[in-house]
């Protein structure tokens, strides 16, 4: 299952820098994850300071 980023996102970009498939990009007010590119590795969740990425 792919990860998604909830509204707790503070747009710091830490998650995008860690994503091995470049599935994370800056969206409107928060970062977003392309579910088709996400490999559910959890790297984004491991570096997020506010625990915004969650596995769907």
What does this structure look like?
The chain is α+β, with helices and mostly antiparallel strands and 56 residues long. It contains 2 helices and 4 strands; from the N terminus they run βαββαβ. The protein has helices at 14-18, 43-47, and strands at residues 3-5, 24-26, 31-33, 53-55. The strands form 2 sheets. The protein has a two-stranded antiparallel ribbon. A two-stranded antiparallel ribbon has the order 2-3. The mean pLDDT is 97.
Provide a brief overview of the structure.
With 56 residues, the protein is an alpha+beta fold. The chain is 18% helix and 21% strand.
What is the secondary structure topology, with strand pairs?
Blueprint: E1 3-5, H1 14-18, E2 24-26, E3 31-33, H2 43-47, E4 53-55
Antiparallel strand pairs: 1-4, 2-3
Which descriptors apply to this entry?
single chain, alpha+beta, two-stranded antiparallel sheet, 4 strands
Helix proportion: 10-25%
User: Main β-sheet: number of strands, strand sense, barrel status?
Assistant: 2 strands, antiparallel
Write down the oligomeric state.
Answer: single chain
Low-confidence stretches: none
Lateral strand order in the biggest sheet: 1-4
Number of helices: 2
The whole-number mean of residue pLDDT values reads 97
Which class best fits the helix and strand makeup? alpha+beta
């Amino acid at each position: 299952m792919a990860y998604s980023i909830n509204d707790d996102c503070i747009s710091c970009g830490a998650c995008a820098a860690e994503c091995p498939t470049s599935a994370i990009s800056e969206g409107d007010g928060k970062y977003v994850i392309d579910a088709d590119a996400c490999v559910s590795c959890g790297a984004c969740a491991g570096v997020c300071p506010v625990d915004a990425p969650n596995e769907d």
